[in-house]
Amino acid sequence: MNMFTRRTPTSCENLLKLTVDVTKSVRTVRPGVKVLLGTPQTSRSVGSLAVRVRFAPSPTGQLHLGGFRTALYNYLFAKSHGGSFVLRIEDTDQNRLVPGAARSLEDILCWMGTPPDESPMKGGEFGPYTQSERLHIYNKYVDQLIEDGHAYRCFCSDRRLEILRKEAARNRTSNKYDRRCLSLSPTEIKEKLEQGLTYTVRFKLSPMNEPFHDLIHGAVMHDVFELEGDPIILKSDGFPTYHLANVVDDHLMKISHVMRGVEWQVSTPKHILLYRAFGWDPPEFAHLPLIMNSDGTKLSKRQNDLHLLSLKEALYYPEAILNFVSLVGGGFEDKEYSLKRVMHMNELVSRFQIDKVHNSAGKLEMERLDDLNNVCLKNHLKSDKAGLVKKCREVVIEGLDHVDQDDLTEELVEKYLVWGQERISNLREFVRPEFMFLWVPPDSLDDITTDRDLLKAVVDLFEANPDVKNFQSKLKAFCKSSQLKFPTVMKDLRILLTGLAEGPPLKELIDVLGRDVVLSRFKKLI
After folding, report:
1. Using omega within 30 degrees of 0 as the cis cutoff, is the peptide bond preceding 128 cis?
2. Active-site residue numbers?
3. pLDDT of res. 279
4. Which pLDDT score is estimated for 41?
């Protein structure tokens, strides 16, 4: 028995009465959608059924952090209950497909440590897992809905539908289809089909006066019958819309819990009505809150720096990304907020609880990802120093065409990594201008202000005094006798070594570069 049939009329009536006093008992999350406050958040026990969840992206581009959060929370929920994580590719919008995107989606999930148990590549008992390969299945269920009177063919032209949209806009009313084709007789339908007229199939909505239960938001009310028109479930190109395909697939694939973005919450009543029309029990629903940019704007697929593939190419570690995403939106029991420690996947699984997920939007603050990646980099320097040194050497050779590879020994790279581990968040930062001096000596005196002959005397003083403190003491005396400003000379020495007016102090540069390299650079330019 599902959650709709087991409620008593009294409890349903009481819930409906709550919608009257909006100021006290209802939270409007978007136009037409109300969350009823104070309602019990009970649900089917996950112990009574096999937990199966799905991540169902469209292959229209690279997976970004917002989409991955949905995948991650599905994965964590499934694994925390010993269940299955299914990847399904929803490619019914053929006009927006990007070649290779479906394969890339699965590859990046595996790289992130969230591999699907069933997928287009891996296969499984309930395949195929790509919707364009399931058209015959959808057609069968569309025919069933038409035969049972729950759906009908719509022959209205795009021009007529556009007129209806304009009239609704002019009258400031909902753009509801007027059901003109619902009244067509079997004879009229047959004649239109024989004429070869194109058509769509619409689902016949019915009143839904009770709220549905959301595992995150509680009882949610949205009467699609009053606010929306009959939705198209089969397009004129023969492909189903999301509304039909996801309901049929979730049922046939035995999906127990649907966890998706909150933007789909408004469509859930339509899906529940479809389940009823088929005579199926709906799964549990949980709508994850939005993730926003730090400035409060929505994430966009056009923000390339948010794509997981871009982050991978920028040498961010998957465990850093995992922990970064887990900081946005809650969902964990006894998980400390920390940018100094990263949790492994088994820890995230053991701490995940769906009732701890926030119901309000969270913001991405990308500097947190840098902090977490720095933690991972330092961890790898301890656990896999040789591998990290090798990768760093490859990054330097790739990023700097004029670097002397013979001088780029593993010992040298390791030394620079140990020094730079507190200064960088990923290896690619090591070839930025501020770190160029590590790999390539400067070749210009343009920014030097001290007289060249005086600088030569300073270099001679450095060569004669191996102890840095002793050198600095004598340099101060030299500057005083030569009427030079000590800070200016120190700045010029830094420029000689790094090409930078600002940067690490001289003593630190001597320590990291080594005395021989420092003396060589001084003499080369003076």
Report:
1. yes
2. 301
3. 97
4. 40
359: its two tokens: 């119901």
Please return the burial class of 414, using the count of CB atoms within 10 Å of its CB with bins 0-12, 13-18 and 19+. Answer: middle
- The one-character DSSP state at 228 is S
Query: What CA–CA distance (Å, rounded) separates 519 from 514?
Result: 9
Place of tokens 């937990």: 51
- Cβ neighbours of residue 391 under 8 Å, at least 6 residues apart? 315, 427
Spatial CA neighbour of 33 closest among 270, 221, 205: 221
pLDDT of 304: 64
pTM across the whole model: 0.86
CB-based contacts of 361: which residues, under 8 Å, 6+ apart?
289, 290, 291, 292
Neighbours of 401 (CB within 10 A): 7
Q: Which residues, in sequence order, are CB contacts of 398 under 8 Å at separation 6+?
A: none
Q: Alpha-carbon distance 65 to 112, whole Å?
A: 12
Alpha carbon distances (Å) from 134 to 117, 260, 385: 20, 22, 49
CA distance 509 to 512: 5
Q: E strands within 302-452?
A: 330-332, 352-357, 362-363
What does the pLDDT read at residue 44? 43
Amino acid at 72: L
For 428-467, where are the alpha helices, taking DSSP H only?
452-464
Residues (pLDDT < 50) of the chain are 1-25, 38-45
- Give the pLDDT confidence score for residue 358 in this predicted structure: 92
Going from the C-alpha of 486 to that of each of 145, 384, 492, 494, the distances in angstroms are 87, 43, 10, 12
Q: Are 424 and 430 in contact (CB under 8 A)?
A: yes
